[in-house]
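[stage:ingest] chain + small molecule (6-diazenyl-5-OXO-L-norleucine)
[stage:ingest] validated
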Amino acid sequence: MKKSIIYHSTLIAFMVALAACKTQKPSTTGSKIEQSQGVYQYRDEDPTVQPFFSDRKGVIGRNGMVASAHPEASQVGLTILKAGGNAVDAAVAVQFALAVVYPGAGNIGGGGFMVYRDRAGSAYTLDYREKAPGQATQNMYLDSLGNVRQGLSISGHLASGVPGSVDGMVEAHKRFGKLAWAEVLQPAVDLAAKGFALTERDALGLNRIKTDLTTINPGKAYFLKSTSPTDTTTWKKGDLLVQADLAKTLQRIQAQGRAGFYEGETARLLAEEMKRGKGLISAEDLKNYHSVWRQPLQANYKSYNVITMPPTSSGGVALIQLMRFTEPYPLRKWGWNRDSTVQVMIEAERRVYADRAKFLGDPDFVKVPVDTLINPNYLRTRWTDFSFAKATDSRAVKGGTIPGYESLETTHFSVVDKEGNAVSITTTLNGGYGSRVVVGGAGFFLNNEMDDFSIKPGVPNMFGLIGNQANAIAPNKRMLSSMTPTILEKDGKLFMVVGTPGGSTIITSVYQTILNVIEHGMSMQEAVNALKFHHQWLPDKTIFENGAFSEPTIQALQSRGYILEKLTNTLGRMDCVLVRPDGSYEGASDPRADNTARGY
Ligand code: DON
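[stage:predict] done
[stage:export] tokens:
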């Protein structure tokens, strides 16, 4: 897949940051925003280890916190909290704001998952994942010889599932919101109608997809700086992006709720768009789409309780498997990213992703053996071939082929309000700007989530993930996800809200970020800043951010047969909140992009 321009700028930012963060100094106080003070006192005895991407400090708030991928969206969330909204009001406002200011992943044309824990400790999860259209068929991306028709599940009209985000937000707000729906939608309407100033990253992202915008959307003027074929001007930092059609779409949703999207004008425009591009989503599909409240997946880890997303995401099951595989080992004593620590984590990841490919799919269509998969007795049987002497061969676990990696264009946000209600949402169009189809007259991108199905057994998707019958395409079925919005309790109280984009790497980034805090004593921001690695069973290699492993760790792992690949790009864009021992919140946003935490 295309490597984004963003990665190049990220790399430069990374190198500058790395040079600047030789030592972790206590944060400076006295700035306007209160910053974290290293409550958990991470220490590494080895001075050659530089575990952090940057020395960004967490933001401290006592009354509320919002961490998201974009400063404008985080500000919207904060404004809603300060206006008396609860965490769900703020989260709904952030989802819609991101659909305006972060069109690469924020969306109304995609889907997502919400994990919610209320202040009294009750937990809920909402599955607003897209569905395959009613006319979808198992082999829709194969030719008559059974070969994959390249690219059809990735770009253009056939790549889109039926969007779930608007229904999800309506459901979440109806059940838990406090402020009026119209009030919660207003900031997004304003951002679309009046425009907002692009960040440098926003500008680069839109410039990067200019060709697709014109070829996939002939005759439309959306997201282009100039529509004249001879004018080569591109977007730059500070330019105002006004989205008049999107503003009208948002106003319809504001006025009519669900019907403002799934019926009436918006639905008509979307169905028309599908007709124009020979896509499958029908007016009927839209009318029939409903998000689903699912039983949260919960599991104990030491004195913590992990509350996470059940299938249709694989993320929760995988996260719990990972945590349970490595729970018996003294990770803290071994040290952060030392060879033994990394080795048991990689071996856990190898086995978990093999299970994912075999067993996971939409629970409304296939029986997913969740209880067995996270059962310690089952996990013990999966560990019998582990040896510290040598890497397990993935082919002995199962077979597959080699993929590429797409840019990080899902998005996660975390919100905690004054009363301690907490929301963890990951939402996506799948690839950056989804299918790149903009709905004519309605002004929003459609997802390319169909690629998350296993379009043919054993054929990798854009994240290199393979699957089988459990995740085969069927009409109205949800495609399997790796998104892992998660909330942790410690001793029965709210402790952490965590999540990230990153396709297949979401699960392992969430896993490492949690362990960084609870095993390695990092603050929330340090855990986010910390460099990351990833293994997904197939391809049988470990990718790592430059600096994540020290030289001795690399040598030790290689001598045991591990294939290591240093990335030139980055892993994860976490947005998290930690409740500190004094009850204040530490908001941590990823320094790898524009992510921003705002608290008060
Ligand atoms: O649901 C999933 O697992 C994927 N559609 C997520 C895609 C993603 O994270 C893309 N960017 N990082």
